[in-house]
Amino acid sequence: MKKGILTAVVAATFAFLGLGALGPKASASEPSYTITADATYAPFDFQDKDNKYVGIDQDLLKEIAKASGFTYNVKPMTFNAAMQSVASSQADGVIAGTTITDERKKVYDFSDSYYKTGVAWATAKNSKIRSLDDLKGKVVALKTGTAGAEYAEKIKDQYGFKITYFSDSDTVYRDVINGNSVATFADLPVLQYTVKNGTALKVQNGDAPFDAGYLGFAVKKGENQQLLADFNKGLATIKENGTYDKIVNKYLSAKAETFTGSAKDNKTVWGILSSNKKAFLSGLGQTAYLTVVGIILASLWGLLLGVMGVSKNRLVRAISTTVVYTFRGMPMLVLAFFLYIGFPALTGVKISAWTAGILTLVLNEGAYTGAFVRGGFNSVDAGQMEAARSLGLSHAQAMRRVIIPQGLKLMVPSFINQFIITLKDTSLLSAIGILELTQTGTLIVTRNSQGFRVWAIVAMIYLVVITLLTLLSNWVEKRTNA
């Protein structure tokens, strides 16, 4: 009975705050399947100049669904998160340039192959490296989970090179261009697309790619077999009617400007800002929403932990200390992955990315809030409690009427500082597919390969917002101390 009441209270709270699904509300025509995808793997999966998810994978999926009569909803995220979402039953399937391997077959069931992949390797445009033998003793940058990474891992001992990993393609390319590593391995179409887009790389084996196998659509092993059968059926149909070849040729032969916008727009900060203003505003709006909701709930949770931390009851104090210690000591990104992927895999209960993101902020930021709230109460002069008790107030009454009001006044700057920290911490939630400001920047960079300019814009947006919050903090601090 108590458990049922608690569940009802939690559900009502989330419904009041609009966090039940923390995404678009369901409707009668909602897609029947949830499909995850890699958000940063052009030309297979990426966002075009109109902020629509496109690519070989996305166009094939669209036509396959049409041919087989099923509907779906795409959730773009990092490759590893996309794969793990399916493994934990958070999503029904994944299409993300995924190479079919024996190891992956232990966890996933794959469709018929929809693309034969070949691995190429590339160096900086002005590099003197010409053969794999030249890689000996040097560092190679790879994107985790890709066919290129798998191939490089197989030959690294043979050629004596070291490996460093990144979660998105643009960071890999920048690492090579900046000289921190000397080469990278990836699917040939991926490297050809980024070179065509102006990235200063040179593909070393474009005419003779290494054979790395086949790409496939995947579902969790033993589940969603109807979806898998429908995918295979639709794939066969579009191969037969010529739609498949049209889609592949569209992305392999088109000029980069077709998806990235004009070269003129991408050559200046103002051009990028102007052509992507809707995306930046949307990302900033999502960041603001996460921050405001997160800080409100984290503040309430932190206040409770702080009050518990100064309780006369030893057990209550111990619970508060344990909670604060646990969630302050846990890296926020680990907590986000645990809530979004680990917990559903353990319990079978699906949690939306938004719910996992908000819970991550509440638990992590609330722990820090609880720590400074407890410190704020303890900083109130001990004589205040003694005076209150001498006037006949109980300990609880003295806390509520004397200690807490004075302590909260001292904590106002700390609360606003935590607001700023929460704003910055929202960037980590991009790893589980939440499209906030940092993820928006990543998607734009994947499309236009203008990392320096895009990240300069993102940095300036954060700086402006944080400056405004700092000014607010100073103003509030002066008002409370007046």
From TrEMBL:
Compartmental location: Cell membrane
UniProt domain ABC transmembrane type-1: residue ranges: 284-473
Pfam family, one: SBP_bac_3
Membrane-topology annotation of the record: Multi-pass membrane protein
Main subcellular localisation: membrane
Domain of life of the native organism: Bacteria
UniProt keywords, alphabetically: Cell membrane, Membrane, Signal, Transmembrane, Transmembrane helix, Transport
Transmembrane region(s): 288-310, 322-343, 454-476
Signal peptide feature range: 1-21
Record protein name field: ABC transporter substrate-binding protein/permease
